[in-house]
Amino acid sequence: MSIAPIQPIVSPELVTGVERAPSAKVDLSGSFGKALEDAHAAERTSTDAAEKFAKGDPAMGIHEVVIASEKANIAVRYATTLKNKALEAYRELMNTQV
User: Quick count: other Cβ atoms within 10 Å of Cβ 69?
Assistant: First the structure.
């Protein structure tokens, strides 16, 4: 009796927004820039949703405001984590003895 290998639920090719960078090259400035742009866009969307809800827009529900706010929160935390990891790696490289 042979057991079939476990297949992934979602193949990496189907995941949107994921780009495979060449293994020898990493674009840190591009990563930082994209993370900051995404965080800024999410913050604007969250603010716009909150303003529409506050003005009584019937198309804007409280659940949409909360979701937009959480997306912005996650985007800002991601950008901050990315920055902290880069600084940590830089400090580790600077402390490496040659």
Answer: 17
Determine the Cα–Cα distance for residues 8 and 14; give it in Å rounded to an integer.
11
- pLDDT of 10 above 90: no
Amino acid identity for residue 2 in this structure: S
Kindly tell me if the per-residue pLDDT of 53 is higher than 60: yes
Encoded amino acid at 36, one letter: L
Measured distance CA(79)–CA(98) in Å, rounded: 31
Q: Phi and psi of 29, rounded to 5°?
A: -65, -40
Cα(79)–Cα(86) distance, rounded to whole angstroms?
A: 11
Count of CA atoms in the C-beta half-sphere (13 A) of 25: 5
pLDDT, residue 30, reads 85
